[in-house]
Amino acid sequence: MAARFKMSRKGVGQLLRSEMIHGDMVRRAHLIEGTAVGMSPVGGAGDPHSGQYKSSWGVTSTRRGGRRRDRATATVRNSAYYARWVEYGTERVPAHHVALRAAAAGGG
């Protein structure tokens, strides 16, 4: 006889907000953060912000994230004011895509 399964929306919501899922999201975010720090460019001796981009990575998390605020999430971000220019480049500086490459590597 085949097994039967009946999904409970309330149960799925509880799972998505559970400590287990939240913990795994935070663990993965910290792995991605470590990878991003490792591949972050550092300016030379004449750079007034040398090492600032590399030291500005951080992780935030919540159990009420996502579009509907119904799941655990963790976010990796760089708080340096020029982080978007490092990530996407400018007309004079090529894009480094640090966050993209770190996320694609999955932190590993």
Structural write-up:
This protein is 44% helix and 16% strand. The chain has five helices and two strands, in the order H-H-H-E-E-H-H. The chain has helices at 9-16, 19-39, 52-55, 83-88, 98-105; strands at 57-65, 71-78. A two-stranded antiparallel sheet has the order 1-2. Helix 2 crosses helix 5. The chain is elongated and about 70 Å long.
The value of Rg in angstroms is: 19 Å
Distance linking N and C termini: 42 Å
The ordered H/E elements are HHHEEHH
Secondary-structure-derived class: alpha+beta
Q: How many β-strands, per DSSP?
A: 2
Averaged pLDDT:
92
| Helical content class | 40-55%
Which range does the strand content fall in?
15-25%
**Low-pLDDT runs:** none
Going across the biggest sheet, name each strand in turn: 1-2
Q: What characterizes the major β-sheet? A: 2 strands, antiparallel
The number of helical runs is 5
- The dominant shape is elongated
Topology:
Layout: H1 9-16, H2 19-39, H3 52-55, E1 57-65, E2 71-78, H4 83-88, H5 98-105
Antiparallel strand pairs: 1-2
Question: TL;DR of this structure?
Answer:
It contains 5 helices and 2 strands, in the order αααββαα. With 108 residues, it is α+β, with helices and mostly antiparallel strands.
